[in-house]
Hints:
InterPro entries: AraC-bd, Homeodomain-like_sf, HTH-like, HTH_AraC, RmlC-like_jellyroll, Tscrpt_reg_AraC-type_HTH. The chain is an alpha+beta fold. The chain has helices spanning about 95-100, 110-115, 125-145, 150-170, 180-195, 205-210, 215-225, 230-250, 255-260, 265-275, 280-290; strands at about 20-25, 40-50, 50-55, 60, 65-70, 75-80, 85-95, 120-125.
Amino acid sequence: xxxxxxxxxxxxxxxxxxxxxxxxxxxxxxxxxxxxxxxxxxxxxxxxxxxxxxxxxxxxxxxxxxxxxxxxxxxxxxxxxxxxxxxxxxxxxxxxxxxxxxxxxxxxxxxxxxxxxxxxxxxxxxxxxxxxxxxxxxxxxxxxxxxxxxxxxxxxxxxxxxxxxxxxxxxxxxxxxxxxxxxxxxxxxxxxxxxxxxxxxxxxxxxxxxxxxxxxxxxxxxxxxxxxxxxxxxxxxxxxxxxxxxxxxxxxxxxxxxxxxxxxxxxxxxxxxxxxxxxxxxxxxxxxxxxx
Length: 292
């Protein structure tokens, strides 16, 4: 079952106790510039094709056998390439389920990779790929089954997947090879600089001076590699940081968060925030406060 619109498994259709979403062998190309940020954890496995994954301020080059674990609050965005397949499997889950299920049973915390490393990419060996892909096939069979027992077995196998990842990440990891071209390296340098300065007034002339690269060339390759403009990325990074600040401190004022994230005035902050999040910062803050 390779579905693009898969229901959540949980306690009920209306209000699931613990969310679990599984998408096996998903092959639909991703929309450029489609950033994501959420409060659940994610496992991403790349089966076939060519692509990049931008997580935080890091560009990850995808190859068959690439496994990524993600703490969802970090801004992340996949990038596929026209004319190339982009086949992946994704598992999104609320960590509360596995935290509650394993707290008094196991001596090793299966969520350790997400909590300690937060976002991490590893290239599986051929042997590890074979084992992991067999687990994913079995997960799909159980997830597709209509009966409740299969769904419970699905959850148990998800736990085994988490322990598999723990075991893989306990091994010494080889130093990752450099980017396949200078373009990725230039864009990575720009992302790293923006991460340190997104809350200030970043200008193209400034990037040109600091990174020793022609600003017009940088604009072109940034969009080619990431699928968005530099300033689109900066605004999205600011909005994501605002969401994190609202979550960490719901009592903090909208005005304070506006200026802390690099916006110069409240009206512009509200306009951009609503454009991407579908609600104003005040509405978002009210929603967060209601959940505490």
